[in-house]
Amino acid sequence: MTLIIGHRGAAGTYPENTMLSFQGAHQAGANGIELDVQMTKDGELVVIHDETVDRTTNGSGYVKDLTLKQLSHLDACYTFKQYSKKTPIPTLEEVLNWASQLQDSFVVNIEFKNGIIQYPHLEQKTIELIHKYNMQKSVIISSFNHYSLVTCKQIDAEIETAILYMEGLYKPWDYAKTVGAKGLHPHYYAVNSFILNEARLNSLDVRPFTVNDEEVMKNLVNDGCAAFITDFPEKAVNINKEE
Ligand code: G3P
Ligand code: MG
């Protein structure tokens, strides 16, 4: 069975990386969510894709230059005019607290956005929160920064990690093992039956992103892909039932 992971929640329908979006993905029947983490000036972990707040909120500036209090005044759904109520940028803690209360081991894929800015103690702080909410079995940490994934494994050898990558990485199943990752999170262009088969033989789960095309979804389900990450979990859940 292919698991459906909602990208930034259900970003095709709701304002990305908000509680509205995460709840929407869950209600649509997704098996989990993917979210992006940055760090505030005062060291708090917040769920937002970009290094700055400019694109997704009514504020401006780098997340790293704003305190949590300053961020809390911003509206993360101001581009969605159908929502009259303000929706804040969630903290990672808020999302983990919510997810920890759901049934059926709802997956939370935490993507570290530390490719451009190196946030101090990001790995340690995240792992502490995962333990606080007893989410060790349901969390997958991914990043394009693979050094950071190694740091996670040094802090907690049991934590599950996955490498994010864009294109034709050579034998990603071999490489993933060198960083201690159990999952491959490639751009979906970088996936084919051969890659899926080799990954399976090497006991690695492949979870491509961001799969919004129905034909691609169907092919992944029929190829027995472990999971995929989509902006449209509702559509993906239906395809999963049909195939
Ligand atoms: O984690 C999968 C995907 O979210 C990676 O790209 O830019 O959407 O965070 P991006
Ligand atoms: Mg992401």
Automatic annotation (TrEMBL):
Q: Coiled-coil ranges per the record?
A: none
Q: Which Gene3D superfamilies match?
A: Phosphatidylinositol (PI) phosphodiesterase
> Pfam families this protein is in?
GDPD
GP-PDE domain boundaries = 2-240
* Domain of life where this protein originates: Bacteria
Q: What is this protein called?
A: Glycerophosphodiester phosphodiesterase
